[in-house]
């Protein structure tokens, strides 16, 4: 009961609860989803860096 009350107060405070994995398969899925999110962020950073370097190179050749 205390856990539910705590969760409710956190949700009302704007905190989204993070569900815990129940089975090894669910835990593996959560790990893979987290890895996928990290890789997507890294890819986005690399795209932005490449665009920045390309625009800098274009300015130098003019």
Write structural notes for this entry.
The protein is an all-alpha fold. It has a domain at 24-62. Helices cover 79% and strands 0% of the residues. It has two helices and no strands. It has helices spanning 2-12, 24-61. The longest helix is centred in the C-terminal third of the chain and has 38 residues, at 24-61. The mean pLDDT is 86.
Secondary structure blueprint with pairings:
Blueprint: H1 2-12, H2 24-61
Protein name: Transposase
Organism: Chromohalobacter japonicus
Region (Disordered): 1-26
Mean pLDDT: 86
Q: Rg, please? A: 21 Å
Largest sheet: none
Instruction: State the oligomer.
Output: single chain
Number of helices: 2
* Distance between the amino and carboxyl termini: 69 Å
Give the overall silhouette: elongated
InterPro entries: Homeodomain-like_sf (IPR009057)
Region (Disordered): 1-26
Organism: Chromohalobacter japonicus
Protein name: Transposase
Summary keywords:
Transposase, 62 residues, Homeodomain-like_sf, mainly alpha
